[in-house]
Amino acid sequence: MFLIWIIIGIVLLIIEAVTVSFLSIFFAIGCLIAGLASFIIPSWGAQIVIMCIVSGIGIIFGRSVLQRYFEVNKEIKPSTIDALIGKTGVVVKDISSEEPGLVKLNGEVWSATSVNSIEIPKNANVVVEKIDGVKLIVKIA
């Protein structure tokens, strides 16, 4: 009986390693405890009850602690370039309808065009509407 519980526990640990859900690990721990209990309690039913109780306690009390500690299921933050949308910058080279200008944003200079192909003079404040490749699409703030 002990060997069966250990095999089930190992399979559950492998599942946990693949999913990182902090769920299978508590069932694996429950299987280990049930395996140890199999030396004392020969009844399969009692071993299953022990496994369920240990797993349930682990899930109720331990899962949230592990998720906080390992920062799992946190809010996904936008990547660096996506985070620029909505930010305000300053035109450092005129933006014309014929050619892109330059905008300084967060200390970096970006190539930029205007939303409606309107001209935007140097030193004007602009807001990033969207990003096309490495070029900002801006409008006057």
TrEMBL record:
Membrane topology: Multi-pass membrane protein
The UniProt record lists the keyword Membrane: yes
NfeD-like C-terminal domain ranges (all copies): 82-139
Protein name per UniProt: NfeD-like C-terminal domain-containing protein
GO cellular component: plasma membrane
Lineage start: Bacteria, Bacillati, Bacillota, Clostridia, Peptostreptococcales
Organism of origin: Paraclostridium benzoelyticum
SUPFAM superfamilies associated with the record: NfeD domain-like
Annotated localization: Membrane
Predominant localisation class: membrane
Alphabetical list of InterPro entries matching this protein: Membrane_assoc_protease, NA-bd_OB-fold, NfeD-like_C
Keywords associated with the record: Membrane, Transmembrane, Transmembrane helix
Transmembrane segments: 7-40, 46-66
Pfam families cross-referenced by the UniProt entry: NfeD
Domain of life per record: Bacteria
